[in-house]
Write a structure and sequence with these properties.
The structure holds two protein chains of two kinds. Chain A is mostly beta strands. Chain A is 0% helix and 55% strand. Chain A has no helices and eleven strands. In chain A, strands 2, 4, 5, 6, 9, 10 and 11 form a seven-stranded mixed β-sheet that branches. In chain A, strands 1-3-8-7 form a four-stranded antiparallel β-sheet, with no helix packed on it. In chain B, strand 3 and strand 4 (45-50) form a beta hairpin. Chain B has strands at residues 9-13, 18-23, 31-38, 45-50, 55-56, 61-64, 70-75, 84-92, 105-110. Chain B is an all-beta fold. The chains are: A mainly beta, B mainly beta.
Chain lengths: 114, 111
């Protein structure tokens, strides 16, 4: 079983469209994250949820809206897609009570906006 | 967030030890030193972390300087599968789960 799974793995869409990426973790962790890796390979945190509560929001445009229906899921919805949104988006999870517990990352979702 | 400095790239021969350095001169007393790696077309993968003492696990060893202003990730016997970008990251203790990735070191393994 994959610990952190993301769907879809690849997504190609036109500018202006709305799309979602889903993430699920089966590790029993209480904290989940979205990271963005751009074409220059910089990995930047976007959001973090702990027990369905938003705890990190790194000045991401309002077009990006994370949603956590439960502790095991964190979805990312993007409205009005722009060319600059093209990137690989990684979901991750950890157990917050462990403090310095490691993050487990998914394999990424490559979004291409045409 | 405290910053780390790593060489952009390194090369090593297969089956030889690799020492990946990281400078973190502005580290605070409660910052843990974490290492992650990212293999091609995959998500980052945890390698090891430590606070003050040297640490060993099945993947690698972490040597931390006495003043904690630098650390070295040691791969004891590099294989082709170890070719990846290695990130050295400082993570505050408790209450802040944010991992801030730098540019990392791209490790190439020569067969």
């Amino acid at each position: 079983d994959t610990a952190v799974s993301q769907t879809p793995k690849y997504l190609v869409t036109q500018m202006g469209n709305d799309k979602s990426i889903k993430c699920e973790q089966n590790l029993g962790h209480d904290t989940m994250y979205w990271y963005k890796q751009d074409s220059k390979k910089f990995l930047k945190i976007m959001f973090s949820y702990n027990n369905k509560e938003l705890i990190i929001n790194e000045t991401v445009p309002n077009r990006f809206s994370p949603k956590s229906p439960d502790k095991a899921h964190l979805n990312l919805h993007i409205n009005s897609l722009e060319l600059g949104d093209s990137a690989v988006y990684f979901c991750a999870s950890s157990q917050r009570s462990l403090g310095t517990g490691e993050l487990f990352f998914g394999e990424g979702s490559r979004l291409t906006v045409l | 967030d405290a910053k780390t400095t790593q060489p952009n790239s390194m090369e090593s021969n297969e089956e030889e030890p690799v020492h990946l350095p990281c400078n973190h001169s502005t580290i605070s007393g409660t910052d843990y030193i974490h290492w992650y790696r990212q293999l091609p077309s995959q998500g980052p993968e945890y390698v090891i972390h430590g606070l003050t003492s040297n640490v060993n696990n099945r993947m690698a060893s972490l040597a931390i300087a006495e003043d904690r202003k630098s650390s070295t990730l040691i791969l004891h016997r590099a294989t082709l599968r170890d070719a990846a970008v290695y990130y050295c990251i400082l993570r505050p203790n408790f209450g802040n789960e944010k991992l801030t990735f730098g540019t990392g070191t791209r490790l190439t393994i020569i067969p």
